[in-house]
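Feature request, filed as a ticket because there's no other form

It would be nice if the structure record came with a short human-readable summary line next to the tokens. Right now we just get the raw output. Example of a typical job, pasted below so the devs can see what we mean:
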Amino acid sequence: MATLWQLQQLAASQCFIRYDAHVGYVFIRRSHAKMSKRIAIVEDDAAIRENYADALRLQGYQVQTYPNKATAIQAFSLRLPNLAILDIGLEHEYDAGFELCQWLRSQSNTLPIIFLTARDSDVDTVSGLRIGADDYLTKDISLPHLAARIAALFRRQDALGKPQQSDHLLTLDALTIDSQRMSVEWNGCNVDLTITEFWMLYALAKHPGHVKNRSQLMQDSKIYVDDSTITSHIKRIRKKFMRLDSSFNCIDTVYGMGYRWNQTANQNSAGQ
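Raw output as currently delivered:
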């Protein structure tokens, strides 16, 4: 079996390390697709910044880090990353991450942007998503879940360039969900959902009429948060549909149990 030092050298070039309880440290060849993806982390806490960077490099990504908005914009003006992870408060600037997100979105409509922050209020979350972030996560998320969220964004981005395949489509009257592209349409209009919101909606719509409790929604969406956060996500999903259709009422709250997709309401909305 290779020594840990040997595995570390391999990890620096073409592999990443995994620890297996039965055989010890083993190495796994990096995906060339991942090695071509460049991730930028903008975080003012050096220890947190490097912890995330090291973990993502071991996943096979190229990672650049920046401590503040100014250095990030200087670098991004020369070359945009393939995905950006932003904190909100950066050094002495309380909302620098929001400003950086707006600047990035002005440079690219398709660049995946994730907020990763300690600020978990609804006001901050809604603000981050409204100005163009694709996902909003708090720093209590585990590294494996962060990596899964990043991979999902890259899958969605890659899938947008591929032909639509019917076996990935879920259609319920006015609602169309493409699970490959992670896209949603209502009456032919795109509904701009985050990755978290997409999987929550998909979990409900895949089994219309069936109640999903909060634990099941967390499992389906690969997040672990408190009940109030699940409620906030559901409210935002509803609001996004209602911007397109003020009569939208297809997500029912089943008090004391959870939520369900109301197929009957869906049919009524589609017919109006």
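Something like this underneath would help us a lot:
The domain at 166-271 is CATH 1.10.10.10 (Arc Repressor Mutant, subunit A).
The two ends are 67 Å apart (CA to CA).
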